[in-house]
Each structure stands twice: as structure tokens, then as C-alpha cells.
Amino acid sequence: MRISVVGGGYVGLVTSVCLSELGHEVDLIEIDADKVASINSGQPTIYEKEMKGLLSVNIGFRLKATTDYDPISISDITFICVGTPAADDGHADLTMIASASRSIGKQLRDAEKYHVVAVKSTVPPGTTSGLVIPEVLNALGKGPDPDEIGFVMNPEFLREGRAINDFMHPDRIVLGCSDRRAGDFFEPVYDGIFAPKIRTNLTAAEMIKYASNAFLATKISFSNEIGNICKRLGVDVYEVMQGVGLDHRISPHFLNAGAGFGGSCFPKDVSALMQLARDAGEEPLLLRSVMEINELQPLRMVSILESKVGSLEGKKIAIIGLAFKDNTDDVRESRAIPVINELLKKGAEVRAYDPLANEPMRRIFPDIIYCKNPGDALQGADGCLVMTEWPQFGLLDHEFELMRSKVIVEGRRILKCRDREGICW
Ligand code: UGA
Hints:
binds uridine-5'-diphosphate-glucuronic acid, six-stranded parallel sheet, single chain, alpha/beta, elongated, 40% helix, eight-stranded mixed sheet, 425 residues
């Protein structure tokens, strides 16, 4: 199939590379000319395992990046993969969705064949039918005609750092369809991928995405609350959750207690769902608690640290791990951010290290000290907080001997050394 993808961010690039790998002809449309040049030269604009290899195999062959919207008019399908950042009030900001829809509609004026517009961005339930369809049709200058154009809402379930694998081996493919023809036309996009396909309407597909992320976030906050209780009772929450997760109705995944969830998805999507609930006249009691636990959780690390080293004024504190999780350089909503803020407020000197995320974090905290290796960060430190589950942190051992006082608080269950205190274990 001939496919256009609007938006060359995380989701758009992974989608484009994987669809071209599946054998489709893909045009990736991105307004940032620097990103386009980088992608066309085979240089990924995001850090993702396997991305460089797949990009270099497909770029210039089945995959092209461009700033031009023209390819849409000769495509079979156009994916919308633009960002939906959180607005100040917690609602999703849909400005980019609306403008992408208008650009697609304009291009489709010249189309001579049936076309499906597929929304992949995470959007609040009701967005495809209430915003995308009217904007596309308005720009197209036509009323709805199911013989000319169809709409699909096809959410992504990609984890950063594992996105290529998640795309190629999904648990399920969700297809919200404006009508049967749109779904039938769209489905062969995923030929070659074996996963159950769920057909539903546009709004239910949007809700499946929000509910999935909200449920995963709830599992994490639940584990954190149980962990906080376990710590008081002297019980190991990891043993408890292993026992709990073996119940097939629960599953063992996303039960790792720790410093809470970060990233560009869970905090934003849960907040957007809460706003949506309130707009609909429903107070989201459970989701409110999920977010409250997540905000308080990282601050517990600072309290534990203080209980061991006393006042933090003038103390050297090492932060090991800045990314919101391992295998990424992304620091968005990283739990290290509230921790660093709190440490600075209390007068500590922060020395930070991350294998990939030093530079991204420097943009948020330009004045803390960034170190090239964990040993430099730990040298002479009065305390250390481990914030990210990078597997290599499990090998840290003699580096801790460089500390002035060996107070190690672990926010992710990753260290092997003794003498460490877990946030909730
Ligand atoms: C998440 C979802 O897992 C994807 O399915 C979804 O497609 C994506 O959001 C999205 O909406 O685009 P991602 O944000 O990349 O993916 O990261 P996760 O691997 O889900 O981790 C999120 C946060 O939860 C991290 O800070 C991680 O440290 C934390 N976490 C995860 C825990 O604290 N405990 C766990 O057991 C698992």
C-alpha cells in the first residue's frame, strides 16, 4: 500500500519505519526540515533500539521523509501521528491534530481514489468524529461520502525503548472504524503481523487507549501503595507482587513498586482522562488517587535520605539515573525531576549521572553538576538516590565506596549491593 504518515516524532517515525519494513511505500511528512534531513540521511532523531538498522535498510527505498504534504493525494492511507501535549489545565492540546486534519483535507481535493485517514495519536474519546472528520471534510470542501473517504482510529501501544518490537509483535491491534469499508480497506496495513484484531467504533478505540494507559498507571500506583505499607510492616513488596502477579487475572507485569511513573504518556493521558471525566460530570476518584500517589512517591526518597544524613543543606547528593526509565534519553516527567527540585530547595549540591539523559536534563536543570560516569557522581557524596532502572546500575559496587558516607536510597529495584535502602522495600 502507499501510505503517508503526518508527524515525524516518536510514534510517526516508528510507524513509518515499521510499515516500510512490512513492505509498504511510506512518505513521512514532517514540518521540521532538520529532522527530515536527518531521517533521509539514515540518522534516527530518537533513541530506539533497532531503529538505526531498520531505517538505513528502508530509507530512500520504500521510505522517504519530506516537508511536503503532496504525497497524501496519491496515497491509500494517511496516518495522523502528531503530538497531543497536555495543556495547562490538563486537557489534551489538539491544535496539531486540527491543523494536520486540515492539511490532509486540502491534499485530498486532488485525490482520485478512495482514501482512509487513520488517527494514531492518542486523542480524547470523541476527537476523531468531533474534530478530525469535520476538519478534513471542511478542508476537502465536501460532505461525508463513504465511497470516497473513510476514517479509522488505530491507537499505538508502543513502549519507548522497545517500540519496534511492540509494533511488530503487538498484543492486539485496535481498529475503530467510521464504517465497514474503511476497516476492510485499512486492515491489510498489518498483513504480516499476527495479533488479535478488535474492530470497534472510533470513540471506543480512543477510549481503549486511554483506559489501557490509565489501568497500567493504576497498577503501578497500586504496587507503590502496597509497597509503602509493606515497608512499614517489614515485608518485601517484590515477593508480595510476585505472588499476586501469578494470578492470571492480574498478570505479573507493571507491578514493580518504586519511585512512580514518568514519561510522555501515563501522566499526560491520566490527567487528560480525568479532565474528560470531569467535563462529562464524573469525578474520577480512583484516577485522582493514582496521580496523588505518583506525585508523593518520589518525595519519599528525599525523606528517607534526610532521615539518614540529617539536614541536606550543603550536602553532596548523587543522582544515579535521570531518564524516566531505562533504554531512553527521555526525561519528560521523570521522577528524578521532583527529586532534584526538592534537593535544591533544601540546599543540597546535586551531582547527576545518566548513560543517555545528561544533556536532556541539562535543559531543565542547567546548574547542577553532570558527571561522565557513576563514579564521578558518587565521589565524596553524602548520599545517593537511584532514580532509573538502567540494568547496568545493577553492576555498581566499588563505585559506592567512593562516597563520603555510604547512604544509598534506591527508587528502582535494581542494585545488587548490600547497604542500600529501597523506597518501599
Ligand atoms: C507507555 C505504555 O506502556 C505503552 O503501552 C503506551 O503505548 C505508551 O505509554 C504511550 O501511550 O505511548 P512508556 O511511556 O514508553 O509506555 O513507558 P512504560 O514502559 O510504560 O513506563 C512508564 C513509567 O512507568 C516509567 O517511568 C517506568 O519506570 C514506570 N514503571 C513501569 C514502574 O514504575 N513500574 C512498572 O512496573 C512499570
